[in-house]
Amino acid sequence: MAAAQKYMQVSVWRGDEATGALEEFDVPAQESQTILDVVSWIQQNADATLAYRYACRVGMCGSCAMMVNGKPRWTCRTHVKKVLGDNGRLTIEPLRNLPVIKDLATDMTEFFDKWIAAEGVFHPTKTRYDEIEGIDPESSVRVEANAAIECINCAVCYAACDVVSANPDYFGPAALNRAWSLVNDTRDGGQAARLEAVSSNGGCHNCHSQQGCSTFCPNELNPTLSIAGLKRETVTSLFRRRS
Predict the structure, then answer these.
(1) Domain ranges for the chain
(2) Which of 17, 32, 184, 204 could form a Cys-Cys staple with 141, CB 3.0–4.6 A?
(3) Widest Cα–Cα separation across the chain
């Protein structure tokens, strides 16, 4: 006789930011089941109106990030057995620190706007008609740049950041991490504007170095270290101008 199907209780955020609430679902427990599998099962079998976002399912795009039992995670790479509470329950909510569009889908507009505000945009110094500039991969600045470039814009660090929660103007770890990678890119011509931007009210000096961004980054980046680099560079730049 086949074993009885086991179920788990899953609480999922439904609705918008102001009027939404958690809704309960009984979801079949499966082997090697991810959180995204759970969300997909609910949408396909229990409530077709559930809104959420995903794309690659293999940890490359970052679009499936959500809060799972109060922590920001990629749901496609998070296995249920690793995060299931002692009470056998799951709580799945939209990423915090971002406006909720509906259910588990958040509006990423302000996240990307802060990238631009932090001058996380490459400013070329050459055209396509110029010779390609040679870059020494072992140089100290290139090593610093390489350490920060694997960010895929999932906003897990943004959701993990308590400073963002307290100060909505703060650019956040991802934008500042990107700015640091460009500070160390010798091909970039926008350094003066970038250092001014990351020194502003929303910039790097707001960071309290609590390491939440580094703790939860699925790609094991260290935005706190990048922000520390920006703090040093902005202060050094200030003294250079005054000398």
Answers:
(1) 7-106, 109-242
(2) 184
(3) 83
Q: Residue-wise pLDDT tens for the chain (243 aa)?
A: 456 788 999 999 999 988 999 999 999 999 999 999 999 999 999 999 999 999 999 889 999 999 999 999 999 999 999 998 777 889 999 999 999 999 999 999 999 999 999 999 999 999 999 998 888 989 999 999 998 999 999 999 999 999 999 999 999 999 999 999 999 999 999 999 999 999 999 999 999 999 999 999 999 999 999 999 999 999 988 777 766
For 109-242, the fitting CATH number among 1.20.140.10, 3.30.2310.20, 3.90.700.10, 1.10.1060.10 is: 1.10.1060.10
CATH 3.40.50.300 fits 7-106, yes or no: no
Q: How does 1-30 read in b/e, with b if 16+ C-beta sit within 10 Å? A: eeeeeeebebbbbbeeeeeeeebebebeee
Alpha-carbon distance of 234 to 126, in angstroms, equals 25
Predicted structure pTM score: 0.92
Answer for the pair 98, 67: CB distance below 8 angstroms, yes or no.
Answer: no
